[in-house]
Structures are given as C-alpha cells and as structure tokens.
Amino acid sequence: MLVTGGAGFIGSHFADLMGEARVTVLDKLTYAGDKDNVPGHADLVVGDICDRELLRAVVPGHDLVVNFAAESHVDRSIEDPAAFVRTNVLGVESLMRACLEAGVPRVVHVSTDEVYGSIDSGSWTEDAPLAPNSPYAASKASGDLIALSYFRTYGLPVMITRGANTYGPRQYPEKIIPLFLKLLRNGEPVPLYGDGAHVREWLHVEDHCRAVRLVAERGEPGEVYHVGGTTELTNRRLTELLLAATGRDWDLVRQAPDRKAHDRRYSLDDARLRALGYAPMVEFAEGLERLTS
Ligand code: NAD
User: Fold this and answer.
1) Which end of the chain is more exposed for a tag (fewer CB within 10 A), N or C?
2) Is 10 in the pocket of ligand 1 (CB under 6 A)?
3) What does the domain layout of the chain look like in residue ranges?
4) What is the pLDDT of residues 82-118, one digit of tens each?
C-alpha cells in the first residue's frame, strides 16, 4: 500500500499499524514530516503529491492508497492560505488522477470534522452541509469534493474519513496538546485562545488509524465516514488536565486573543463507521496518561 504523508503524525501511526503489509510512504518532509517517524518496514519516497510525474512512477502497483499528506495547522493557514490550497486541493486532484490512471482498487482520503464549520449542539451526520470557516477547513472541504468527484465522474473507488481532533505520540508541537505539554514541562506559559470555551472531541491516534484501516477494508466507495472522539472537552478543561498532568497551575496560563473565525464546537455522529464494526479503544484519560507518564 501507499501511505502519502506517512512521515507525519497520523500517517506514520497508520504505517505502523499496517506492519504486515508492504508499505511505501510518499512524503514531502515539510516541517511537519520526519523521516525518523517512518517505520522500518516501509520504503520512503521523498516527494510531493502535487508532482504528477513522480506519482505516475510511484502509484502503479499499489493495492491501496491512503492519503494523509496535507498542510494541517489552522493557524498557519490563516498566515499562508496558498500553501494549503496547493497541497490540500491541487495535491488531492493530482493523487486521485494518478490513482485513476493506475487503476488502484481502493483509495482512502483522510479528512477532518472542520469541513462542517461549527455546531452549537447535537452532532453532524455525513450528510451535513459543508460550511468551512478557516482556509485550512476550506481547503480540506475542497479536497474532499474533488475526491468525491473522482468517484462520481470516473468511478474511482475512493472513501473519505473525517476525523475528530486527534492526539498522541509524535504530534508536531504546534497543536494544542503537544504544544502545551512542551511549554508546561519547561515551566513556560501557555496561550489559551479567547474565553477557552471552544469545545473539541478528542480521538486517540491509534483509534483514528484503526478506523481508517476499517474503512479501507470495508468501506463503500463514494461514502464518507466520521471518526468521532471519545471525550468532549472545552479548551479550558483540557488545559486544566494538562496542568494537572505536568504538576503546574493556572499561573502559567495566559489568555491569548482569539483565533480568527475560531469554530466554537465540533461534534461528529459516527454511527455509519460503528455499523462497520468500529469502537474506540483508548479513552482520553488513558491516552493522556500514556503521553505524560
Ligand atoms: P501532519 O501535519 O502531522 O502530517 C502531514 C504530513 O504530510 C507531513 O509528514 C508532511 O511532510 C506531509 N506533506 C505535507 N504536504 C505534502 C505534499 N505536498 N506532498 C507530500 N507530503 C506532504 O498532519 P496530521 O495531523 O498527521 O494529519 C494527517 C491528515 O489527517 C490530514 O489530512 C489532516 O487534515 C487529517 N486530520 C488531522 C487531525 C488532527 O487532529 N491532527 C484530525 C482530523 C483529520
């Protein structure tokens, strides 16, 4: 199988999980990618999913392609949206085209709950309208639509997963959990956006990867599958848990100006995935304990 973005956070855990398979990782090794994340059983090709010629050489012969390659940090997308459009939209198109030309029998494109915008109560099903707010979310929504168009127009057997906020080892320390843990361990202050009342549901990276594997094995082409989290937390409550885990207190918390267009709450209904047999295995308390012990 080919795992694009497999030197990043979730993609490298997915390559780990597929230990018995022959795995090729294709990764541009941006700031977020690290070749040391790539497991020993995988072959690493350093390259860009926007490079059509490279894809034409690498993609043929794979039974499964799973796309994790992305620009993934909302704050960076607010600074430089163009990089996000390039990889998350144009790159997805190049990859879908290469998969179609090579006749790849199963393709999974990994996406995010952020494509729906914000929801005050209840949970989104996969039929909810896309209403992204940040350039990151808009680029992911666009990539999803391109991938689905390859199913509807050309019959490419592609499935999409949309996962909740994911955490675990090897996450780049720009996302809230690894950033706060790094700062708190050093006794440095942490920036809490706005009133801290933004709500996220948290998904352990191993559960996220098990869900993607299940969709790769049993998903219906052309379908979208949600991967919900196990625990819903405000950023304020999450900060309290991270302070407790590192033995620090509120003296180290600084209120930062809120992120532009900051979504208040995400929540996914993942009944469709559960009907395939999915159940998360890592509760948040356990996942956090594993990260901090
Ligand atoms: P990450 O930023 O840790 O890793 C992304 C990887 O993609 C890096 O190794 C990077 O080098 C590589 N990459 C970037 N641009 C590339 C390009 N043009 N060509 C080839 N490789 C390129 O991201 P992550 O957190 O592991 O996220 C993986 C996927 O999961 C993304 O599509 C993201 O939208 C999605 N997702 C992430 C989360 C989360 O909380 N982290 C939640 C839901 C969905």
Assistant:
1) C
2) yes
3) 2-163+205-228+265-279
4) 999 999 999 999 999 999 999 999 999 999 999 999 9
